[in-house]
Amino acid sequence: MDIIILGLLMMQKCTIYEMRKLIENRFSLISSNSMGSIQAAIKKLSAKNMIIFSESVENGVNKKVYEITTEGKDYFYSGISAPMLYKEKNMELCKFFFMGFADKEKRVELIDAYIGELEKELAVLEGVNAIVSPRHAPKGEELAAMHEKGAAHEITEETVRDITVFQYATLDLSIDKIRFEIGWFQDFKKKVVAMEGGNL
Predict the structure, then answer these.
(1) For 149-182, b where at least 16 C-beta lie within 10 A, e where not — what string?
(2) Would you give the DSSP letter of residue 14?
(3) Which of 66, 88, 102, 115 has a 20 to 30 Å separation from 177 between CA atoms?
């Protein structure tokens, strides 16, 4: 969560509610957008002077806008410069692991339900993909607007082009992984039906 928040603040200044919305829209397959998780990360990053905030009152509501500090940028760059680790732990898979204990009549139904969940997630990602098409990197007026929103000074036309290449690739990877998983479970369902003699 720390790197996600710092990365968002590299792109623009944010309130905690804006962060939550961005995490929900862009990182649903990577991270929870629970307010508790975000607030805990904000508290930790603030205590380490990696982020600061300015306060104002808007329509009678107290508003905190967060931005990244030099210490936060250093930590962010250090974090993204380390090799990625494989950490795809899905506790829901324990249900699949023990599915042999489930009633035979329910197994295909359970697999179908999971395929349905994957198809819903795929539809969301394909919707995002449609919104960002045709793909391009912000430049000119769009880049100026990013700086007005508090994007880090390091973000230039060249760096934002590089950033978007990897952001689009992350979207493509997520779509491809879900498509693979849907196909895998559809094939496995056929094996289960065959294993049970077609009586399911």
Answers:
(1) ebbbeebeeeebeebeeebbeebeebbeebeeeb
(2) B
(3) 102
Helix segments in the chain, DSSP class H: 2-11, 16-26, 35-47, 70-80, 93-97, 104-131, 141-148, 157-195
Confirm if 45 and 7 have CB atoms less than 8 A apart. no
Contact 3, 79 (CB under 8 A): yes
- Nearest-CA neighbor of 137 among 172, 163, 110? 163
> How many CB atoms within 10 Å of residue 32?
13
Task: Point out which residues pair with 61 in neighbouring strands.
Answer: 58
* 87 Cα distance to chain centroid: 14
CA distance 177 to 181: 6
Q: Which of 54, 51, 70, 43 lies closest to 8 in space, CA to CA?
A: 51
Report in angstroms the alpha-carbon separations of 27 from 36, 99, 101, 125, 138: 16, 29, 34, 11, 20
Give the Cα separation of 139 and 146 in Å (integer): 9
User: At residue 131, what is the residue type?
Assistant: I
Q: Are strands 61-68 and 51-58 parallel, antiparallel or unpaired?
A: antiparallel
Provide the whole-model pTM: 0.78
| CB distance 73 to 10 below 8 Å | yes
Per-residue model confidence as pLDDT tens digits over 144-171: 777 787 777 777 788 888 888 898 999 9
